[in-house]
Amino acid sequence: MSVERGTSALLTRRRLILSKAAEPVGWKIGFNLPEFQQKLGIDAPLAGFLTSNGLLEDGAEWSLGSEGEVIVESEVAVELGEDARSIVALLPALELADPPDLEQDVETILAGNIFHRAVAFGPRLETSDPGAARILVNGEVQHDVDAERAGANLEAMVEAVAARLEAADERLRPGERIITGVLAPPHKAAPGDTVRLELEAVGAVELRFAD
Fold it and tell me: What is the Cα–Cα distance from 31 to 44, expressed in whole angstroms?
């Protein structure tokens, strides 16, 4: 029941944000890794939301002093087709999130939109294969992710979001984007950092961090 109540609170928060002139962007996967699901007592990923209020331009600067400390999650984003299920395009994405407090219960985590702060997308390409991924911090490669792993489970993550929404009487819509979960351990941003995600077959996105 905690997932149901938390998702209901999350969708209420989304409706309030949209009522204040924000535009819907899509959804996010939370806790795509089994070890975190086990810790939280869930058997599938959670779903959060994305709106234009949290949309950053590729190359934007985030002030850690005024906007708050964040972790940076490198993810493959998918764009949905006319049937709101098929994947018609991929994009590299960097999500900014509050450092997660995993002592919170699932209901509280969902009500807070799974720690989400912002997201930046790179170029959109009509493909189903992202290729290999590289995550760089200040020009140095921190993580290499092979193409098979980078492109794994994209359809399954769409279905996971759809299932969470349908259980709360909400649904996916054509053209929405979903960021599909972390490719590698997140980076805790520090002043002066530049974080870049490169998807070999799609393109790159990066963000800079200041005091």
Answer: 8
